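Sanity check

After download, print the first record. It should look like this:
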Amino acid sequence: MEVFGRAPARGTPAIGYFPQLRTVLPDLRVRGRDFIASSLNGERWGLPSLSHKERATVEATLDSVGARDLAARPLSEMSGGERQRLLLAQALIGDPKLLLLDEPLISLDARNQEIAIGVVRKVCRERKITVLFSAHELNQLLGTLDRVLYLGNGQAVLGTVDEVVKAPVLSRLYGAEIQVVRADGHIFVMSRGRDVERVDHMHDHGHSHDHGHSHTITDMFDYEFMTNAFAAAGIVAVVSGLVGYFLVMRGQTFAGHALSHIGFAGATGAGLIGVAPLWGLLAFTLAAGIAMGALGERISNRDVAIGVILALALGFGLLFLHYYTSFATQATALLFGNVLAVDHSMIVTLAVLGAITLAALTAIMRPLIFSSLQPELAEAKGVPLRFISTAFLAIVALAVAECAQIVGVLLVFTLMVGPPAAAQRVTTGLWSGLFAAAVFALAESWLGLTMAFYTDWPVSFCIAVLSALVYFACLALSMRVGPAHPVPAP
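Expected structure tokens:
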């Protein structure tokens, strides 16, 4: 088969694709403009920066589908029909000559179906492109279709509506007696009194749709261990906030928790053989992250198996401690963190690991965003989803190993999930979200250290409390402010 003189392949710019399986999260606080921009050269590596020409392309595409008013609004404040318009705009990025729409009317009410069809008709006429529109029911499309390709029983018939949708043709196609009833401008394809198109649609989709209080801040920095702690916490907080932002966006927060548990076994095992715990932690988390990314969907929805593996990892950690009891103090630090014991060499190590982590994140950021927001479309455009997933989880593994040095393996959520989740509650832009996540993580770390200095409470406890307070404050703020615009009924 050839399309425009060549065999179709992933990443063909002449073909725009609107996938049937759409994983856009309805509570995702990403602006419409950023959502569309994620698909513009989303298969390329590097930062998702746009030139002036590319920004103009995004704005023109929004205009072409009548979505200018959605540009600054987050997806979480849009109806299903409004999100469909943005998905259509994504398919139009790159100025394709052929537009493949795989059931774009699914889950839309009658009004939004009419709007979607009108937008497609307008785009087809203005851009002079061919549209292949997949649907289970014809009635909404009557008056719009030039030709119809009817599929049934492993066969196909192509022609106008009047040529194809008639009893003799469809009876031969289905291998059964079919009746075609026309009434009030509608067409009903019946078999033994059942609407064949509707029954097929439901079958395919499975639904009908001791420090005194007299100290000052200056006094605090008179202690070298506090200066070291602030430096180490600052490095880790920024890395955790930035990496965690994408962890939350992709719905993989459990992965960070899992990697930290697995890393504990590596750290204790390293201590048993005389190696620095950080390197054992790093080795195990990296290996586990790469394995999780490589396995992909084969480990999804297997919470029981994953839970057993995590318990087993902690069990091995305890076994290693049993044979090396002198390591118990370090084990407590691994579980709950001990940032006050950080020295200059550890700061250098964290800085190098942080630079590597952020450099790797920068390299894959553009396709990472694209595949996080629209994995089906990203795959169609040639983005290597398995590689991106594996690379990202390896990056998460590095961040977890660094984060554990501050808050311990049991509390990595406080820096890798809390600040990014809070940021996504109060921001809608990508860069503003990343900035807020890093600032929240940094503020919580430094304020936590300050609280610990003046109260003699554990540092990790202080950071965890601040993380929870910031998240719930942002959650309450987003609920109080509410949608910036009224949301039409879906």
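If your output differs, re-run the checksum step. Summary of this record's structure: The chain has two domains: 15-167, 220-481.
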